[in-house]
Write a structure and sequence with these properties.
Elements lengths: L1 H8 L3 E5 L4 H13 L2 E5 L3 H10 L7 E2 L10 H12 L4 E4 L5 E2 L7 H29 L2 E6 L12 H21 L4 E8 L2 E2 L2 H4 L1 E2 L10 H4 L2 E2 H13 L4 E4 L5 H8 L1 H8 L6
Helix pairs in contact: 1-9, 2-9, 5-6, 10-11
Length: about 270
């Protein structure tokens, strides 16, 4: 199975957003080791260049910085990739921003910013790529959602809303593009040991600036990415990744009353 998984990514051109840290950075490390050619995107060009330098076959990779919350050049970004490689096989639509603050205290500008980055920025790339994937009669879009895309949670109203929106959009794309041999995988990580909580926005729109207990005690990011890549290589439509917290999704489906009794006792951080 390991050989089959590696074969799915070897020599493929793969675009990773949110590549400067967390799941995105680990994806870059594992995929470059397999032999993929990577396009690395995030806002921080310095971090992306440092990452590229440390990757296997660093000369094969392209740094393509942009801000998911503020860009109108999706077609130009796609053209840059195709000008260099002539093709693109997989997009890991991973970039995003989390939240820490109660809905009542969170300004609507914060809601809009999170939705702009997590939803609108994300789907802009999808819409720019789909014509290319249709032309090639192949392509794979991997969307990094969250367990918060399956149910709301304390201090996550805007974040959960953005992730719920992604599910609706990409389940529709999955159905529409199946006839064109374009695959979609929706990934729902739970508690993963990444710095996502540090950059999360509080109710005032400022950085939370702390590593939450839920992240510190979460699944190691390398294990998360291994599970993610295995699911993608199998062309799974959806995958839940995490420890015991992912059972909440199943409990909500089959025993909603029990779910609400359990979830209300959980800590937001």
């Amino acid at each position: 199975m390991q050989h089959i998984m590696e074969g799915y990514f070897q020599n493929k051109v793969i675009w990773i957003t949110g590549a400067s840290s967390g799941i995105g950075s680990e994806l870059a490390k594992q995929l470059s080791a397999i032999g993929a050619k990577l396009v690395l995107s995030a806002r921080n060009e310095e971090k992306l260049n440092a990452l590229k330098k440390d990757l296997t076959n660093s000369q094969e990779h392209l740094v393509l910085p942009f801000d998911l919350g503020n860009f109108d050049n999706a077609d130009e970004l796609v053209k840059t990739i195709y000008d260099k490689y002539g093709k693109l096989h997989i997009l890991f639509n991973n970039g995003g921003l989390s939240q820490r603050g109660e809905a009542i205290d969170t300004g609507i500008d914060v809601d809009r910013k999170i939705m702009e980055i997590n939803y609108f920025g994300n789907i802009k790339l999808c819409k720019a790529l789909l014509p290319k994937f249709r032309e090639a009669k192949e392509g794979h879009i991997v969307v990094i959602s969250s367990i918060a895309g399956k149910f709301g949670f304390y201090w996550r109203s805007a974040y959960a809303a953005s992730k719920h929106a992604l599910q609706g959009f990409y389940e529709s794309v999955l159905l529409e593009e199946a006839k064109n041999n374009i695959n979609v995988t929706l990934a729902y990580p739970g508690k993963i040991n990444t710095p996502i909580s540090e950059s999360a926005l509080n109710s005032s729109g400022e950085k939370h600036g702390e590593m939450d207990h839920n992240q510190k005690t979460g699944m190691p990011v390398d294990v998360c990415v291994q599970k993610l890549l295995k699911a993608v290589s199998k062309k799974k439509k959806a995958v839940l990744i995490g420890n015991k917290e992912i059972w909440a999704v199943h409990i909500k489906r089959f025993s909603p009353g029990l779910f609400w009794r359990i979830i209300k006792k959980q800590s937001p951080v």
